[in-house]
Amino acid sequence: MVRINSTLAPFSTDAFRNGEFLTVTDADVRGKWSVFFFYPADFTFVCPTELEDLADNQAAFDKLGVEIYSVSTDKHFTHKAWHDTSPAIGKIKYTMLGDPTGVISRNFGVLIEEAGLADRGTFLLDPEGKVQYIEITAGGVGRSATELLEKIQAAQYVATHPGEVCPAKWKEGGETLKPSLDLVGKI
Question: Which residues are catalytic?
Fold first, then answer.
């Protein structure tokens, strides 16, 4: 299972983005903040609501310098067919990774082996390819792009402000904490 500060494992896969097929590798991911957003399958029910939510918030992710990679065990051809037929998925501009062999899903520890599908897993990677945030939910529980954006802002703040941490419900511009002996027992 992937843990916080785990490093992105090597991979190479076919993908669909902006009307084109391309190959994406782990090397393409490094150097920028990235979200790997795993979902069970194309042409399903909760998945398009989540992927559309990400697409609707694309500008906010772009502003933070974050690349989105949605991942399912479908092939890149299936991603294109879904993109071309679903109004919700048609909004997507980010990269949709195909993972038909389950290598990427397995690398992140979200592959349901007996089903050949991925759990709903969200992973935030820093520019060095290290995992900074993990969320895994049950199949029937959708995720929120707004909540994810808040986690990204907090992770980016902590990464650029050594010695500071973000408390619960922290929002950009909010008060942070500086852990020290003087702070122990006073929160």
Answer: 47
